[in-house]
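#lab-general

N.A. 3:47 PM
ok so I finally got the sequence cleaned up, no stray characters, all 577 residues accounted for. can someone with queue access submit it? mine expired

B.Y. 3:52 PM
send it over

N.A. 3:53 PM
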Amino acid sequence: MFTPEARRSASAAAAEDVVTGDMVAQHAYCERRLHLAYVEGRWADNAHTEHGAWVHRNADAGEDALPTADDPDAPRVARSVELTCDERGLRAKLDLLERGDGASVPVEIKKGSVPSSGRPYPPERRQVGLQAMLLRANGHACDEGVIYYAGSRRRVTVPVDDALVAEIEAAVVDVRRVLALPMAPPPLEDSPKCVQCSLVGICLPDETNLLRERSPVTEKATDAGDDRTPELREVRRLVPPRDDALPLYVQEQGAQVGKRGEKLVVSKKGDTLAEARLLDVSQLVLCGSVTVTPAALALLCDAGVPIVHLTSGNWFHGVTAGLGLRNAFDRAAQFARCADEAFCLRTARAVVLAKARNQRTMLRRNGPSGARVLDDLRAAFDGVERASSIEELLGAEGHAAALYFGAFGGMLQPRSDATTGAFDFTVRNRRPPRDPVNAMLSFGYALLAKELTVALLAVGLDPYWGFYHRPRHGRASLALDLMEEFRPLLVDSAVLSAVNTGVVDARCFEHGANGCALNARGRKAFLGAYEARMDQLVTHPVFDYRVSWRRVLNVQAQLLARLFRGEITDYPAITTR
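B.Y. 4:20 PM
back already:
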């Protein structure tokens, strides 16, 4: 597994211009994976890495120093031995070092079985070969390495001859070339390697390759009447449809979040209110006056789990996170593209058009049949597509939103007659919201904004520098850009579900001179509806596989980063039928 210590060690090696044995192995496996892990700091675990960690548990139990070659009293077997060659900038860590008959042998442990050919794969050969080369550099006689395959319980000897040494030396040179690249190399094409790769959800190989094929030239040819529709590749769903880890919301005022081992513990006045395993938590969301102990804060930062702060009035306040990604080129590309007015208008137009189409879909599915507003909204699409500036686009978006929210009340059908009047809706208002429906919409949009801020930070982008919403102090403009297409699909849908199924009622709200707000009972009820929507599986409209809405948000953030870097030419905004 990629422990925090392993990630820090990898980051230090890359920063010091040191090539490690794992880098050489990753290079032979996939240059893009090498760049994502060691340049961008993108590490992730899956079942294969966790199984590998379990197989290595005995070898990793301790760290032994490298014995001198002629020490007769040194143990015959050493574990987790660090090897370095400062002159050449090389480093490796041996699982086992076996000594005997005047020679030393590195042993690399692998979880799988011996390949059908009987010959180790190139990443394995190069990794153990580099270890042998480093043993030689430290005065040890070493003519071979050993790979132990735990799956078949067999050892395979790898002769470290001149040919392998030359292969490794060439690989070291190329590793340094890849590490110097400002952008990751292109994904592999339909490779079986992607199936087991723990970074596949970050790399998105099939998705990226598909979008690179959907060039504007191809689309124009099709629109012009060319009936030769290009055959686009099939996109494999290589990641689970939803994440096991979910946000942990803490709403009890005065509560404290601490740690106990690898668990988060929520307590108040000495009483334990809740516990959660760290691996089950994707975000810690603090609502109002909730504190976090320094030990819990360090644990969350090390694990890359962000802490999201919401005010007691349910406004998204900020994020506490670890250092995050180290690749400054992504943000440089973001700032450069967002300074390009043509790019900003083209991308913003795609986002706003998707939002308007999704608003129309919501009304078509949930509103009165035959409503004239559907025709009016369809006509509003033309205004969005014709907009020649961001200012015109804002006006077109506002017109579509006015049509949509003018008909929004027709989709609300409370089950209880006693609460029907509580959910009357005539106009969208905020800061502060003045009725229960607007209170839920504002709370939901705050939740969605924090969700996308976290997603953007996770891919190395600056959530405060957008292409549509102009940058302003304290406003997560890029998160607001990305959330536009999802407002009706996620938040508005959750509000309708909460009202129409009776999840919320009049007792869930507090009314005052400063407007209307959800109380503790209401927040809990609405969070249930919101999280149920986020966890719902949907067929991705572009890639045609089933994933949760939360996974869709993460994929869109990844694709936005690729758009900024120029890996893809157009942003694939999400619309549903």
